[in-house]
Write a structure and sequence with these properties.
With 100 residues, the protein is mostly beta strands. It has three helices and seven strands; from the N terminus they run H-H-E-E-E-E-E-E-E-H. The protein has a seven-stranded antiparallel sheet with strand order 4-3-2-1-5-6-7. A hairpin with a 3-residue loop joins strand 2 and strand 3. It is globular.
Length: 100
């Protein structure tokens, strides 16, 4: 085999523009469950700014390396969120419990 065939290929990360505006599921240590966050913006010095959809005062800065690993893309499906990477269904009513 040639050295070209043995070369390790590192996938390119998704462009910043492709991440901003998406929703992500991530663990919440305060509530011991998964929360849904909206990717609001990006700053090269700190990473992505994520805002909790049910608690807008809850902001997180997230490294680009965490996207797709511990922060998984979520889809809004009306009454629930769907996280395809883990086949997780999160009812919106469950996220609202305990707030306030």
């Amino acid at each position: 085999m040639s050295s070209e065939q043995n070369a390790v290929v590192t996938p390119e990360p998704r462009p910043v523009e492709a991440i901003i505006g998406l929703f992500f599921a991530a663990p919440s240590f305060e509530r011991i469950r998964t929360e849904i966050y909206y990717c609001d913006s990006y700053d090269r010095s700190v990473g992505y700014l994520m805002v909790n959809v049910n608690a807008p005062a809850d902001h997180r800065t997230v490294s680009s390396h965490a996207i797709g690993h511990t922060w998984l893309q979520a889809e809004d499906r009306g009454h629930h969120w769907w996280v395809a990477a883990t086949h997780l269904r999160i009812e919106k009513s469950e996220l609202l419990e305990g707030l306030g």
